[in-house]
Amino acid sequence: MQKCDHCNTPFTYGEINKSLWLAYRPIKCRQCGTKHKVLIASRFVLSIIVVPITVFGIYLTSNFNLSILSMLAMVLLLTIPVSLLFPYLVKFSDDCT
């Protein structure tokens, strides 16, 4: 897990997950108050993971003549478990760098 760049206070799994689900909102350190933003490289890695899942869901939907609602449900069922790993993959940097 990522830690604060200034005081080495670790971010909690919940803080990182909340940041990711709220459009990469910056995390403020509980100890020193430094704001940390998600690195562009981390955003790119996460999109590389999510986009193929979505494309796979669309592919399955078209091959099996499933409805749009079925496709959305399938994509969510594939994406949610994978997204539980995202807090371990994402990297943050403070505003100064």
What does the model show?
- The chain has a three-stranded antiparallel sheet with strand order 1-2-3.
- It has one domain (13-94).
- The model has no long low-confidence stretch (mean pLDDT 88).
- By secondary structure, the chain is mainly alpha-helical.
- The chain is built from four helices and three strands, in the order αββαααβ.
- It has helices spanning 13-21, 40-63, 68-83, 86-89, and strands spanning 27-28, 35-38, 92-94.
Question: What would you say about this model in short?
Answer:
The chain has helices at about 15-20, 40-65, 70-85, 85-90; strands at about 25-30, 35-40, 90-95. By secondary structure, it is mainly alpha-helical. β1 (about 25-30) and β2 form a beta hairpin.
The low-confidence parts are none
Major sheet, described briefly?
3 strands, antiparallel
What is the terminal separation in angstroms?
19 Å
Care to count the β-strands?
A: 3
**Helix percent band:** 40-55%
Order of helices and strands: HEEHHHE
| Assembly of the depicted chains | single chain
Please tell me the overall pLDDT. 88
Strand order of the largest sheet: 1-2-3
What portion of residues belong to β-strands?
5-15%
Our count of helices gives 4
**Structural domains: how many:** 1
Class by alpha and beta content? mainly alpha
Question: What is Rg?
Answer: 16 Å
The best one-word shape is elongated
